[in-house]
Structures are given as C-alpha cells and as structure tokens.
Amino acid sequence: MASGLLLNRGVLTLGIHCQRVCRNVSVSQVREKKRWMKSYTHLMAKKLKLEGPPAPKPRSLQPHWEFHAEVQAFSSRLQENFSLEALKRAFINPCYLQAEQERRRALGLDSETTALTLKDNIQLSEKGKGFTKSFLSDWCRANFPRLRREGVESVVAHLTSSPVVTYVARNLGIEDLTMSAECPVPDDVLHSTFMAVIGALEESSGAEQTGLFLRDFLSTQLIGKDLFDMWTVVDPMGLLVEELTQRDLPLPEPRLVRAAGASTVLPLYFVGLYSDKKLLAQGPGETLVAAEEEAARVALRKLYGYTENHRPFNFSPLQPHQQPLIQAVSSN
C-alpha cells in the first residue's frame, strides 16, 4: 500500500511539473500563405491580362550560357564526331550577323570596330540541302524500288519540308543554339540551320555517317504516314491503269462487292477491283465513285509496296557487308 501511495504521489508531481512547463510554451498559428499573397497574386494576374505574356528571350541572353560548352555538349549528346569550328559556323545565320552589325552601328562605333570576323552558314546550308535530297532519294528508291519517280519526289519533298525539319530540329535542341535576329526562331531560319548542321556533319565525319544520321532522324518521320498524304494523285484509277499496262496485266474492272444503308443519309459502298478474275483490292466510300477511287489507291499501295503492313524499315546498326551499299548510295 505504501508503494501505491508513493507511485500516485510521483504521478501527481510529474503532472504538476508538466502543467508548469506547458504554461511557459506559447503556441502560435501558422498560415500556409501570407496575408499579402492574395492581393499580390491578383495584381500579377491582372497585369498579365493587360500587358500579355512577356516577350520570349533567346537562350543566349539567359543566365548560365556559354556558347562553346553548349556546342560541345550538343555534339556529345548526338554522339556524332563534329568539327567544333564547323558546327559553330552552322548555327550562325546571316540575319544574326546583319542585326549585330546594325546594333553596333547604333552604339556609335566606327566601321572597323563593328566589323565581325564570324562567317555565316550559307555554304553549309546549301551543301546540307543537296546531300539530304540526294541521300533521301536514294534511300527511298532502295526501300521502295517499285515506286514511281513522282512518288519518290513527293516523299523526299515531305521529309525535307519545313514542318518536318523544324519538328526534328526543335526536338534535337537546335533551336536553342541557333543565332538568329528574331526570337522565337522563324521556321525558315531553323530549317536552314538544320541543313547547315547536316553540311557540317558531312564535312566532319563523311557521307556515310551523315547518311546514318538522316536515316535515323528524318526517315523515321515516315512511320505511320500514308503514301497519298504526301503524294497527291488526282486520278488514281488512271494511274492504276497505266501501271497495269506497263506490267502487261489486264485492266482493272470495278465491281460492287457489298453495300449498306443505300437508302439512308449515310450510305456505304465497297467496290472491288478485279484483274484477270483476281481481286486486286477493295475500298469503301460514301459513293460508288469515291469507293472506286479508294480501291484504286489500295491497289496502288500494294503495287508500290507501301502498305500499312509493309516490312519495317531497317534502322539497326550497319553490318560490315552493308557499308559498301550505303557508300554507293551516298556517293550518287
């Protein structure tokens, strides 16, 4: 019993001590946001609505920028053996040099002081354009040997068009390194810069390595792309007749295979094309004429080997027996 009294007394003493300690502790309420944050945020949103978003600033005018280090990092990131001097020249556009000279003249500097020793990328860009078109043409002929010359030209024109090239250039980080008079960089300037990078790579590593670069980054843009989205054919049936005539095959005969909802607002017809009693292709359409044209396009895709289930492109590393082929293609 004595031990129980001692225990209760100890607990009571500890409780009194805790009460004294808690009286000396002051608890203050902490808000998650400051009181001035609401008015400040409202003011900034109102200012953004009135003035609009700030003008974009080139990467070269932002902190932590060093052109030589960025160019060297770009070469290492792509795992290509660039000549740094040629790669630097590829990013310098004529519009940048002109704007820089005008800016220096506006500061009151004399002509000798304002003279720039930098060289633009015009020659590299022209060299890159010529090599790109030549290599892609040979690559298309090698992968689609039955495709007509007009089709090859249309595919190459699509791969070298401004939307495709600028999309690849922006994803490779070329836009941040491009020295241009305007910001953001215009599409034509970015297109020219990408071609200049191709010219610099050919000058540094040779045609074989440049061809592999184009194969990996530009030719891959054909994946999931339909042939007739790039090549506009006005009369597919006439083209099919011409192709079958050249191959000494009987002319195609359209036949209605099946139809649905012919008396409704949304009819559907399937037309099949037969040659020598063999079904070449069939296609759907809201009218018989549209279905016949679609069937002709399907037949042309089969003739040219550009179908949805065609053999995938070979993007694997080159084997020793494949190198002479690429060298022959790139030398044309």
TrEMBL record:
Tagged with keyword Transit peptide: yes
Single annotated GO MF: ribonuclease III activity
Ranges of residues in domain Large ribosomal subunit protein mL44 endonuclease: 67-201
Keyword set, alphabetical order: Mitochondrion, Ribonucleoprotein, Ribosomal protein, RNA-binding, Transit peptide
InterPro entries cross-referenced by the UniProt entry: Ribosomal_mL44_DSRM_metazoa (IPR044444), RM44_endonuclase (IPR055189), RNase_III_sf (IPR036389)
Main location: mitochondrion
Domain named Large ribosomal subunit protein mL44 dsRNA binding: residues: 231-318
Location of this chain's protein in the cell: Mitochondrion
Gene Ontology cellular component annotations, sorted alphabetically: microprocessor complex; mitochondrial large ribosomal subunit
Similarity section: Belongs to the ribonuclease III family. Mitochondrion-specific ribosomal protein mL44 subfamily.
PANTHER family: LARGE RIBOSOMAL SUBUNIT PROTEIN ML44, RIBONUCLEASE III
The protein, known as: Large ribosomal subunit protein mL44
